[in-house]
Amino acid sequence: MRIVVDAMGSDAYPQPDVAGSVLAAREWGDTILLVGDPSKIEAELAKHNTSGLKLEVVPASEVIEMTDKPAESAKRKLNSSMHIGMGLVRDEKADAFVTAGNTGAALAVATLHMKRIRGISRPVLTAVFRNPAGYTIMADFGANSDCRPEWLVEFATMANLYAKHALGIESPRVALLSNGEEEGKGNSLVHETLPLMQNQTQFHFVGNMEPKEVLRGDTDIIVHDGFTGNIMGKTLEATASMVTQLIREEIGKSPVSTLGGALARPAFRRVRKRIDPYEIGGAPLLGVNGIVIIGHGRSNDVAIKNAIRQARQAVEGKVLDAIKAGIEGTAS
Fold first, then answer.
1. What is each CA distance from 158 to 80, 114, 126, 192, 291, in whole angstroms?
2. How far apart are CA 100 and CA 299, in angstroms?
C-alpha cells in the first residue's frame, strides 16, 4: 500500500508528521510518501532509525498554512504539499492521502483534484470517537455549516458504508441529532430530514437522539449539520481535557488523595487512552473520489500514525467502491 502524508500539515510540521510516518512504516511495512520541503523532511528523518523502511520524499515548494483562506490557497498554491499529495492519489500513484493541515483547504483541494463522487451533493467530514460500547461516527463534523435535508441522508449513507467497510460494524445504527427523541422536537432541518430518514432503505435508522444517548453508545452514527457537529465535537474534546485536568488537581491536594491517585493511575491511563482523540487519528472526508483523512492541527506523532491506520482501513475495506455503489443504488 502507498499512502501520502502531508509532511507540512500539522501546527508543528514537519516533526510530528515525519515521526508518525516512521512509526506507521515500521508497524505496517507500507510505503509512505512524505510531501513537502525535502531539506526539512530529511532533517527530521535523520533523527530516526529508518533502516529497511519504505519512506519516500516528494518535493513541494509551497505550504498551505492554517491562516490561509481555503478557496484562495486551493487556487493559488498549486505547488503546495496538499496539491501535490492529492494529485498523487488522483493519478493513482498512491492509495490515500493524510494531512493534519488546514481543514477547509483540504476540503477545497480534494474537491478540486478528486472531484465529488457522482450523485453526491456535498462531501462530508466525519469524526470517529469512542463510546462505552465501541465507536460513534459524527457526520458532518464541519465541512457544511448550512445543510439541506437530502444532504443529511447522503451523509448517513456514506457514514454507514464507512462504518461497515472500515470499522467492521455489521449493521450500523443511524440517528439524527436533536434536542429530544420525540418527532416534534428539533429545528426545521431536523423536522424536514426525519421523514426522509424514515423512508429510506440504505441504512438502519433509529430515530432522533440526544447527545447523552450518543455518548452512551446508543448509536453508531449520528447525523447533523456541520455547524452543530463541529461545536459538539469541540465541546466533547474540551470536556475530556477539563475533566482530566480536574482529576490531576484533586489528586495532588492531599497525601491521601495522592496515594489514592497513585494506586488508580493505571485505570486513569486506560480511561485517558479511550477518550484521547490522538488515539483515533483523524476525520475521514467522504464523498470525493479518493481516500482522504484530515487530522487535528495539534496532532502528535501518535495521532499521525493513527490517521495513517485509518487510511489503511479505508483502503483495505474498499470504502470508496462501496460508497460509489451505495450512492448509485440510492439514485436508482
1. 29, 17, 10, 20, 13
2. 7
The overall pTM is greater than 0.90: no
User: Following CA atoms 48, 49, 52, 57 in sequence, which dihedral angle do they give, to the nearest 10 degrees?
Assistant: 20
Report how far residue 151's alpha carbon sits from residue 323's, in angstroms, rounded to the nearest whole number: 15
Supply the DSSP string of 57-77, one letter for each residue. Answer: EEE--B---TTS-HHHHHHH-
pLDDT tens-place string over residues 76-106: 999 999 999 999 999 999 999 999 999 999 9
> Residues 234-283: pLDDT tens digits?
888 788 778 778 877 877 777 766 766 666 667 656 655 555 555 667 88
Q: Which domains does the chain have, with CATH numbers?
A: 1-120+287-320 (3.40.718.10), 126-280 (3.40.718.10)
133: buried, middle or exposed (CB in 10 Å: 19+, 13-18, 0-12)?
Answer: exposed
CA distance linking residue 111 with residue 103, whole number of Å: 12
Instruction: Report how far residue 312's alpha carbon sits from residue 166's, in angstroms, rounded to the nearest whole number.
Output: 9
The residue type at 7: A
Place of cell 527530521: 44
CA atoms of 33 and 39, how far apart (whole Å)? 15
The C-alpha cell at 294 is 484530515
Measure the N-to-C terminal CA separation of the chain; round to a whole number of Å: 33
Amino acid at 74: A
Determine phi and psi for 55, rounding to 5 degrees.
-120, 125
